[in-house]
Amino acid sequence: MTLPVAWKMPLPLPDPACIEGARAQQNSLTKPPGSLGRLEEAAVALCGQQHRAVPSVDRVHIAVFAGDHGVCDEGVSAFPQAVTAQMIANFAGGGAAISVLARELGAALEVVNLGTVGNVPADLPGVIDASIAPATGNIAVQPAMTDVQVAAALTAGDRAAARAAEAGADLLIAGDMGIGNTTTAAAVACALLYEAPEALVGAGTGLAPEAIQHKATVVGRALNRHGENREPLAVLQSLGGFEIAAIAGAYLGAAARGIPVLVDGFIASAGALIAVRQQPTLRSWLHFGHRSAEQGHRRVLDALEAEPLLDLGMRLGEGSGAATAVTLLRSACALHNRMASFADAGVSDGKG
């Protein structure tokens, strides 16, 4: 199995000198120290990640990874699998939520098709064909991916990060599309966090309580089949999805290339959890856009020691929550870069 270099090679660290300088800059501005809260923290982190005194998130690269899931055979979704392919066309046509948000942000948007049950028309604008198989295996009865397939999905994510770097991106957002993917994300999170399915399985596409219980039962079957191996690659291959693997690959690839990451919701955070368990250094490259309404997301965020920027009750996926939070990061950069210092403004700093 040939994995992307970033899966095992040491990742770079943010620049401590830039972080120290950014903190000094924040403390010199015309405000009480710390009074801009997490906007200050975000700006300081970006300075260290971008190795510069003037942080920026003007150039945002959004990669939405799409793939279908064999576990849908178990009746875990309120929507048919045909929706995955249909939504890829909707992304390309500009009608999806992430398409609208990308236009508003002036962000680059690409969609990476990792394999769908439904037919995806050829040559859709902005859609990259990286098809692996029509769907993953049904995790309730078999591993999600073969060795070759999980490596291909991780590599597809790494290549998206390479395209972001080539475009000079200041920030990477990875989104997801795949009917059934809250089931696989919950299975991955349960395995890594030693949680019962009932603690993490949620409504997904809008399931009723009895359907949520059925979904938790399916996840329980998958966990029993998988066994006790908690090594990140083993969990990903056995229980994950093409898009979860690609998201993990994209995050690691972005950090390896010095690009900060803004993490989206439950699916994206499951990818982040896998990647951080493999490469703990990755955590210092991650910002978190929002807290999803999906039941398991809070627990995954806690495991990642993450406090997201927004909590709006969103649970769409696609990268939409992270894209919504970009405006806050841009505000953090503007404040850091443009506020007057006490000395420049002739304002007393209260120290003498």
UniProtKB/TrEMBL annotation:
Keywords: Cobalamin biosynthesis, Glycosyltransferase, Transferase. This is Nicotinate-nucleotide--dimethylbenzimidazole phosphoribosyltransferase. HAMAP family: CobT (MF_00230). PANTHER family: NICOTINATE-NUCLEOTIDE--DIMETHYLBENZIMIDAZOLE PHOSPHORIBOSYLTRANSFERASE. It is an enzyme of class 2 (transferase). Pfam families: DBI_PRT (PF02277). One of its GO terms (molecular function) is nicotinate-nucleotide-dimethylbenzimidazole phosphoribosyltransferase activity. Pathway: Nucleoside biosynthesis; alpha-ribazole biosynthesis; alpha-ribazole from 5,6-dimethylbenzimidazole: step 1/2. Coiled coil: none annotated. Gene3D superfamilies: 1.10.1610.10, 3.40.50.10210. It comes from the Bacteria. It catalyses: 5,6-dimethylbenzimidazole + nicotinate beta-D-ribonucleotide = alpha-ribazole 5'-phosphate + nicotinate + H(+).
